[in-house]
Amino acid sequence: MIPKRITISGNILFGKPRIKGTRISVEQVLGCLAEGWTHKEIIKEFNVTEEDINACVDFAYQSVSRIRFLRSSSRQAYA
Questions:
Q1: Distance CA 13, CA 26 (A)
Q2: 51 with 42: CB under 8 angstroms?
Q3: CA distance 26 to 56
């Protein structure tokens, strides 16, 4: 289930999940978090809310939780 604050439109950002009413992708927010940005910095830079950031993290969690990871003898793969 997609969080209410996240939307996907094929004609906006090439169909990437984004924060509803913005052109800020879930990927952008997660990238900032991965680089060590604080929520406060993201809110200021992109004019989003704490709830928007949490929705991005929730969306990512839900997406990853649906993937089965398989280990092969020479490398790791996923299905």
A1: 11
A2: no
A3: 5
How do residues 57-76 score in pLDDT, each as one tens digit?
A: 999 999 988 877 777 765 55
Task: State the burial class of residue 23 (Cβ atoms within 10 Å of its Cβ: 0-12, 13-18, 19+).
Answer: exposed
Q: How far apart are CA 37 and CA 45, in angstroms?
A: 10
Between 26-34 and 39-46, two packed helices, what is the crossing angle to 10 degrees? Answer: 140
Write out pLDDT tens, residues 2-61.
779 999 999 999 999 999 999 999 999 999 999 999 999 999 999 999 999 999 999 999
Q: Spell out the domains of the chain, with CATH numbers in brackets.
A: 6-78 (1.10.10.10)
Tokens 């809110």 correspond to 43
